[in-house]
Design goal:
Blueprint lengths: L12 H16 L3 H13 L5 H17 L21 H16 L2 H11 L3 H11 L7 H11 L4 H13 L5 E6 L2 E6 L12 H17 L3 H16 L3 H8 L4 H16 L6 H8 L6 H18 L5
Antiparallel strand pairs: 1-2
Length: 306
């Protein structure tokens, strides 16, 4: 943020939607200081979306309650100058475990909040904190919760990441997208940039095309692809993506691109997309499979974005 007054800045609906995605991205990457500053900026702007303002204020209040120290707002990390090994993650670990020692019930309250909370952004925050707390009940509670409760795909994936960060390993049986699957916890990518190379190539291809043809789509493509990976991870469709030959990069990229045009931009020409990505008759069977999976994702996720 520039630091300039923003009370004359007006946020239009598409801009509000953009910032909602940006907040989710910052929370997923545990950048709480940037999240706080962005929320403060948004609340200083003018918008006709009162629901969004209420959500931003609620999230800001929650962040300030959870991370009251300036260190966690990215304002002058104490210890950073004297000891470069004191990174934000270690400070967060010490801060949270100190809170648990002070109250004796912080971990239990955080688990209760996670499991009874419907707001995805606050569930993401709770999981971020549970990753660093030293408490014997957390692992079993998360394992039972993720295996038995239906939940937002982003939260399910974040829970797997949290378990991995806590050092939990082994096979976890899940029900996902109407199928039963088994996931090796320790193989869960720690971040969206750590998925296998062939997965990364798909979003790179969409961004390459969209930057030339549909510049406004590039950002939405990256965020939607992350949501799709959370949605599909560990399923038969995901395993099939890993096995397919290089030509199928264009198949999945085209399916994502068309879905975004249809759901976000209220349009999309299938013939044009086929031409842009080189989807020939030889690839039509793979295309139909990819597109059906993408449509299932869109039906599930676009009506419940965090």
């Amino acid at each position: 943020m520039s630091g300039q007054p923003s009370d004359n800045v007006i946020l239009f609906p598409k801009t509000v939607e953009y910032y909602q995605f940006e907040l989710t991205r910052l929370l997923e990457s545990e950048r709480y200081g940037e999240t706080t500053r962005l929320l403060q900026f948004l609340l200083s702007c003018r918008t006709g979306d009162e629901k969004a303002r209420e959500e931003w204020q609620s999230l800001l209040d929650w962040l300030q309650m959870m991370f009251p120290d300036a260190a966690f707002h990215g304002e002058g990390n104490p210890g950073t100058d004297e000891d470069p090994e004191w990174d934000e993650e270690e400070l967060l670990r010490q801060h949270l475990n100190g809170r648990h020692e002070d109250s004796g019930e912080y971990a239990e309250k955080l688990l209760e909040h996670l499991m009874n909370q419907e707001a995805v952004d606050k569930q993401l925050l709770a999981l971020d904190q549970l990753a660093f707390l030293d408490h014997p009940a957390i692992d079993d509670a998360l394992l039972e919760w993720v295996a038995e409760r239906p939940m937002h795909p982003l939260i399910q994936f974040k829970t797997l990441q949290t378990l991995r960060k806590r050092g939990v390993s082994g096979t976890l049986a899940l029900s996902k997208n109407g199928e039963s699957t088994e996931i090796e916890i320790e193989e869960t990518p720690a971040g969206f940039d750590q998925f296998p190379a062939q997965i990364q190539e798909i979003i790179a291809r969409v961004q390459e095309i969209s930057e030339m043809q549909y510049p406004a789509l590039s950002y939405f493509a990256a965020e939607t692809w992350n949501e799709f990976l959370a949605f599909v991870y560990g399923t038969s469709a995901y395993r099939q993506m890993l096995k397919q030959d290089p030509a199928c990069v264009d198949v999945w990229a085209a399916a994502l691109h068309l879905t975004l045009l249809e759901k976000v931009f209220d349009g999309g020409d299938r013939a044009e997309i086929f031409e842009l990505y080189g989807i020939t008759s030889d690839l039509m069977f793979q295309w139909e499979q990819a597109y059906r999976t993408m449509q299932l994702f869109a039906q599930t996720m676009f009506s419940r974005r965090p």
